[in-house]
Amino acid sequence: MKIFNKKRLRLLMFLHAITLILWLMAKPNFFIFKNTPFLALAQISGLWAATAVSLNFVLAARLGVVNKFLGGLDKAYLLHAQTGKIAFFYMLFHLLLLLIDALPSTKLALSYIIPFIDIAYDMGKIALSLFTLLLVLTLIIKLPYHIWRKTHQLMVLPMLFLLFHTLLITSDVSVYMPLRIWIVGIVSIGLTLYVYKMFIYPIYGPKYLYVINKITDMRTATEIILKPVNKKLNFEPGQFVFVQFISKKVTQEEHPFSISSSPARNYIRLTIKKSGDFTNKLSLLEVKEKANIYGPYGHFGQRALTGQKPLIFIAGGIGITPFLSILTYLSENKIDKKVTLFYSHKMGEALYKNNLKKLQNKNINIILHNSNSQGYITAEKVLKTTGYQRPLIFLCGPIGMMKSLSQQFQALGIKEKNILFEDFNLKK
Hints:
Number of helices: 18
Radius of gyration: 25 Å
Helix content: 40-55%
Largest sheet: 6 strands, antiparallel
Strand content: 15-25%
Number of strands: 11
């Protein structure tokens, strides 16, 4: 389970390489590395900061082509979280390297950190200060989700000041047109996609209006069944949606939830774990209240439905939801595919236990695993129990469980490309 797999790493390296090559082309010679190495590294890190921030906004825009390339929206969001951190460190290194290069000139060093000396430098100082503040709020302080989301949306502010800093400062960007076009271009794309995501997507995105048909309090989770008001959402088993409930009883931000029902139904079933202020209040919603549904997203079920390899599903807790959708679809359509589901749960928290038992047939095997009495599931036990040769393994559940099992399976010879996972832990 790597955030930076080969494909994502190549994307980062490709964008960084273009920026570096254009910066090198702007130089009359490479003596800058010999004469002022710290200044050279400061310039590179500054340009890479602009590159990383721009990519950050692209990854957050929910673009289908980007999600498909990276393996799903959850993978794009994981990379989005990391590129934000990378951009911050580039900005920090940019300042530190400039300070080192300025020494022993105290006056020049101070101009990089004291405000109101140079407007171009001030733009950079504001960008770094805002970035630092917002990263602390979004990554370190445990804010309620609706507040965290609003602070996260303010990341556009340091982006703007970074753009102003890049355009105003006397640098290679100002004198070498190809580099200027590249930096201004990627930043403009990032800002355009921010505007799209904030103002256009909520109105013209893949939006469907649904009405709540039934609500069931399942003690540790809330089951919500929604029916379309007009157009029905078409989705594949194992996909997820973003849901905005139109009710005064909950906050109005969108949240991602897996669909636990089959695509063949004329409704959508969401099974949502009670894990915070928002999810704990969902049982207060009322029948006939409406919800905006955005999606569908995710590629989790696609590989499960294609090819001939046997399938191993491992669910932890609420991670059972996408598997319910996939297994119901396989059963309904009598698809000849060997599947074994291991459902790890705590005492009394096995959701849809009776439904799962009904899905068992000659191809589908359901194994309930009580972690209180049986301990953690291990990869060795899973492979020994199934006896499958070269299976595809699907993981959905707590991040610790997925990381541990992924490492165990790889240690036993399962290739990383044959281990798929879904991760909605967006606040990374």
